Batch of 3 targets.
Target 1
Amino acid sequence: MKEAQYPDYKSTCGWNKLLPIRSNNPELTQNITADVVIIGAGYTGVAAAKRWHDIKPDDQIIMIDASTTGEGSSGRNSGFLIEIALANDISSSATEKLMQCNQLISDTLIKIKEDVSRSSIDCQMHRTGVYRVAASTIGIKSLNKYIKFLESTNLDFEILNNRELEENLGTKYYQKGLYTPHCFLVQPAALIRALLEKLPSPITYFENTPALKCLKSKSEWIVKTPNGDIKAKKVIVANNAFCGKLGFGNSYLATIYTYAGLTEQLSKNNLELLGNNNNWGILPTHRLGSTLRRTIDGRLMIRSLYHYEKEGNKDLIKKRLIDQLRKRYPQLPDLNFETVWGGATGLTMNGGWLWGEYEKNLYISAGCNGGGVVKGTLFGEHLANLANNESTLDIKKLFGSANWMPPEPFRKIGFNLISMIESHRGKSEI
Ligand SMILES: Cc1cc2nc3c(=O)[nH]c(=O)nc-3n(C[C@H](O)[C@H](O)[C@H](O)COP(=O)(O)OP(=O)(O)OC[C@H]3O[C@@H](n4cnc5c(N)ncnc54)[C@H](O)[C@@H]3O)c2cc1C
């Protein structure tokens, strides 16, 4: 069996760079035993660990991460915590099920908020709502579809024209948009730090400790790491985009990289050119479109572009991201990034998750498809329930289950082809 590939993020970038330096937890340097080992200390892993501790307070829980807190995708994302289903989830025939999912998601958000309020870290978590915007005919078509869905659900929303968008967001770029109040914005690296801040003592967390292999022995699993093995009765695989690299779920999940840039803090004069709302987030209507934010500390963020299985050229990405931002804000020609980064997400064929007992006593929750801060938390908790025979939600029925993906080279060819066509069709939305 080959050793797993894992994220090897050593230099602090992105949101983590804006936070004070923290001292890392130790690496694992000896062989140990535990009741459960959790691979990945992102939202899913942390939620699973905490829930496991609630169910079995005396169990020894080991959680390992290949990198350090805030350096993985849990700290690299755009910080949208959405309380309702995303556009690619919609089908008006499934409205009742959707309402149930929305309730679960919104309850999970309340729990996250409570955890945040107990921590000493300011996560800049605010219920700002979210804009969905369209710059071209293809974007308007998807926006109208989303409006139809919202109408069928009785959820609040407001439609905005080009002038109203400009007043709020300081850009003339978009033709039509809508605003829904169902979203929090957060500083994601601060959020994952906050959630990891006060772990109960039976949870031991090792950083810079990648799982290289998971081997099954008679009644146990052995998780191999560079400087020590962990023997455990059960394993939770919560490393999302990298789950296939450990040899699990390869037929359901691919690793996709996407990128973001955060500007320096803008001057007072420049901020005055950005409309009257000082904390907002924009989600694209087109599936390859760009996400934007104006942060409460006066920066702009853009998230865009995708690559299959491997990060793209950093200089090219930086150039494309800044061009995309300047195109939206021609009144700020000197915009520059303080930090640019890439992050991995687990992509599945149909947007469903890979969730459940994958092999005996080995459980997986993976395949966030770019939106797993809240869902990851919910699914991590329920994975701990499942592994401990506690009552659990039927995640697959409610949120969908990942479909089989064709093997290589068809998968890569398919991704690149669709990406090329969609990038061309939706070029104004990128
Ligand atoms: C640029 C970007 C923007 C995004 N924006 C949003 C957004 O606005 N809202 C949203 O909900 N989602 C967003 N996402 C997706 C979001 O980051 C993920 O859904 C979320 O982080 C999933 O949490 P997780 O715990 O399941 O996985 P992750 O956060 O990916 O955590 C998995 C952890 O496992 C570790 N790991 C990997 N391999 C190994 C190994 N072999 N051994 C040990 N540890 C390992 C990693 O270091 C990582 O810390 C975005 C993602 C990116 C990249």
Target 2
Amino acid sequence: MLLDLTLGMMIYLVVSLFFHEPFNFWGLVVAGFFAGFPDIDFLLFAILRRKYNLVSHRLIHLPLPLITLGITAICAFGWLLVSHLPFSIGYAVALFAIGNLSHFIHDSYGELGIKWLWPFNNTIYQIRGFRIINGDVEAERHFRSLREGVKERSIWQEVIIRARMEPPGEQTISFFGLVFTLCALFYIFS
Ligand SMILES: [Zn+2]
């Protein structure tokens, strides 16, 4: 989560410089939200997991449909609300598309991988180093381990399991500190 937030802040800086946008607090908030956006399905998981025996919150972690629908929605709502937006539609689209891509690349390093080509292909892809590999077997093994005891676990235990899967390491904290400092400099000098 901290890495997604940090990536969102970095994307905010790069996209703002590219679009020649001055510092905008809401742009920073929106960029952080978009970089974590796919994990919003955890809310659906929390509500529906008992009813449908769900073991994972990977419900909208599908890059092709999610990014396409998201860009369409931003263009439609942006066109309706254009006079009220604090930035251009192109800027919001760039934050959304790059933020979501960074999230899916990050998740591809995990055991569950990502179905990058769904609905055309059901394969789960993982990234190891700079290599893209088929992650079907490892993801199934991980799903099986999540399935064990799922009925007895509370939603807080589900949160803790996911937090333990990826505790923020020293490198992530240093990266966050660096990007936070760059954002502060951008605020001061823009
Ligand atoms: Zn995710």
Target 3
Amino acid sequence: MSSSRTGIEWTDKTWNPTTGCTKVSPGCRYCYAEALTKRFSKSFPQGFEMTLHPERLEQPLHWRTPSRIFVNSMSDLFHEDVPFSYLQEIFRIMQETPWHVYQILTKRDQRLVELMPKLNWADNIWMGVSVESQAYTHRIDALRQIPSVVRFLSCEPLLSSLQLNLEGIDWVIVGGESGFNHRPINPEWVRDILQQTQEQKVAFFFKQWGGNHPKAGGNLLDGFTWEQMPPAWDIHKLNFGQKKNSKQHKSRLEQNSLVSAK
Ligand code: SF4
């Protein structure tokens, strides 16, 4: 299963030069990537074991439409079993394709900080950390050390209220858990994070309430959708355009102006 299509609202494509992972914190308990490897077991003969896919390394070179690309939706790029030389190759491809924006998300903040000085942080790399509960806000301190053009948080699955210091952070994504075992999200937690992003002037994206499947609860928060993107995305689009996605491009620009009432 190497298709780049995705239903993830804050990105256009996925690129998985590795698949598989191991669990590190409570947000991993019902990992959707692991669930997909079980559901589509023929496409994942190695199951959820960390597997390198060097044949996929050059895929983005062939994607000509400027896109937001989520790197490793099926894994964690900073997993300890991803060799440094392989990481360097991934960073080289990202640098060689400046028409794309790459969105990397990790829960391995220690390895991220350790390797940060040895990696080339091109202007099209956005770096993010997952923060599912207050106990993991230390990942944000690690993220602040990364010289990426955009630093973002994915608070999904949101498992507690969060008090966030958003200094140096450009974008916060929030979402509830999906799947039959989903842990419920409290709407007050979401309203509170929204308020903190507004006070600290950070873009806010509410992905979903969650439920038995990702779209079960929709994404309306008190009658509004919140799908803001960091300003760097508009700048990137101005620089590189999005010819094939012009309609989508227009609607996203409208959304970025703040909110769209339903
Ligand atoms: S770090 Fe991400 S991919 Fe890895 S087990 Fe946890 S949720 Fe799944």
